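Q: Now give one record:
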Amino acid sequence: MTIRPLPPSSSPEKRSEILYGVENAVGRGVYFMSNVKKRMDIYFDYSAPSIVVEVPEYRNGYIDIRKRGGKIRAFTEITKDNINYCKELIKLVDELRHLSGVKGGLAVSETEYMATTVLEEAKPLTQVIFSSVKEVVEQGQYIFDTLWNAAVPAEQRIREIEEGLEPVRTRIVESQDQIIEQIRNLNNRADHLSICSSLGGMQMSYDLFFDTYRNIVNKFRKEEEEEGDFNRLRWIINIDKDSIKLVILFLEVGFQIRHVKNMLPLNFGVSDKEVAIRIEKIERGKMSQSFLISNEPLYVSHFNSLFEEIWNNGIDAKERIRDIEAGLDTANIEIIQNPKEAIKRAWDYLKTSRSDVSVVFPTANAFRRQKDMGLLQLLKEATEQRGVQIRILIPTSEQIMRTINESKRICPLVDFRIAEGNLQTQITLVLIDNEHCMIVELKDDTRDSSYTAAGLSTYSNSKSIILSYASIFEILWKQNELYEQLKIHDKMQREFIDVAAHELRTPIQPILGLTQVLQSAMKKDNNASNIRYQELLDPIVRNVKRLQQLTEDILDVTKIESQSLQLKKELLNINEVISSVLADYGTNIKKIHGGITNTNAKIALNSKDDVFVMADRSRLYQVFANLLNNAIKFTEEGSITITVQRTHDINEEAVVSIKDTGAGIDAEILPRLFSRFTTKSQTSGTGLGLFISKGIVEAHGGRMWAENNKGSKGATFSFSLPIVKEE
């Protein structure tokens, strides 16, 4: 019989139709195959391979598709009866797979769909459904792909049939006798055996299958000696005091066992070939159990992977048993991915706290977010109803005192403490009753919600971890307490120094003035006696001037530290200020500030362009005089060079540098050069000049630094000030 391709009964418009009779059905099938351009996906039941192989129209259609470069994927149910046809079919398609229980047939190409429910072995089709409607084609493709992914390679199934292997099947076994028989068979067929169960599962296995395990071990031991594989019998269980004896029995038999605290609510055993899963259910108030047993490769692979994941996180049974016998309990450490779950856990522990709670927040915002969620009510209940001692450490920030005061009104028994400076941490630490430790990562402090601001969290009940973090908390708490005490003492000290400086200022001025008047009178009557008394008055004047300078320096230090230094800014040419300092010093610089130094160094100003700044003239004079005096003091010979330069950054600055060829900066004091009372001199200098100079420069919005000259003697002191741009 010659059958011609049968096109759709109507025009090219997309449509669906059912065709009856061999000629119509086969003709439409031939037409379908002739339209295939790149691919044809097809499945059919166990009788259809004979149709494709025996009916020329179908066989030639397959051959023609592949000649045109098209790809054919097909699956069917491969049985002992159709295995020879399937071997022939493998030659006609690009890939053939096996799937049990296939009914009817379906074929789909890029543009068309065809299906049938009537298939007879080695006979042409008598009825088909055809469609070129896009949605129908897409649905057919989806059905095929879903089933295709569940199918197994035809070669594997053919090998199983020819070698007499058990077919792939999944079943529920409920009879106790059948359960015992099936599990015993699974154990005997296994090359590897991995079991994950509760204590009840291990007890049942001991009661019913312990003899089987002995036989398996003996069989495995011979193979292990030959193959070197000593990891073939494994068991995962939660080991506690109640299960130790039973676990030891299985260890002695030859099982490798690991402890997992939080077991899955699932008991299963898996080998290289099969998986058995215990199913528990309650019927009419009574617990009953059955087993799902399957040799489906996907199930077996999945449960083997699941077992490996749990096994890798387990603890060796021998270590666990030693800990239990020694009275130690293995700590629970969890990584919590979900911020909502982590914060809920922390709050739950807080709600059940009994004795003490310690919390460190990484930022003030972190505390505010928790406060907005209702934290203060929990703290109030814990302190007032259960007598819990709560301490909270929060970093300082603007407006933090207002937040703390509001919190204290609601929770007067909570001890809040503000940590001065940055805690240098990105975690919230919560310690509860020395039993629970929660660490919550701060991911984004700009967020309004704690859930979006938090990242990963860690929970632990490990004693060593809790004690370590408790120790860290105590250090931070006491450090802050000491800091508060130091602030009080420092304030008292500054107030005392300020008062003392002001009190010293009062007698110094008349002493200096009267002594200078006396000197002047003696100069007029220049006899021998007066000359001798003048020499006695010179050191008095010199030391009174030093004392006067000291009081002025102390008052300046107090103003700088209290940020109360007043500046009278005006537009200044920085070169003019430097020139006035040099003019005041004059060419004879042997007597500077009372004649405390002697130098032969040459001083030169290296600046041509006018540079204007907004500054306090007297304070700028003071800074430059301090730096110049410092350079003269340590430079006996050589040169002192003063330069003024402009920077060309976005924020333009004037940089003044005083470079000398003196002794340089001692390495011991270099790191604290601009701190108070930093000096190497035992006879002169208070160590306040550089501190004051730096404070004045910074009050102008500038900066100051120093370094030893590279490749030559001496040091360079520099400071910068913002430039006023010329109109």
The first strand starts at residue 16 and ends at 20. The chain has five domains: 16-162, 170-325, 333-461, 488-561, 569-722. The mean pLDDT is 82.
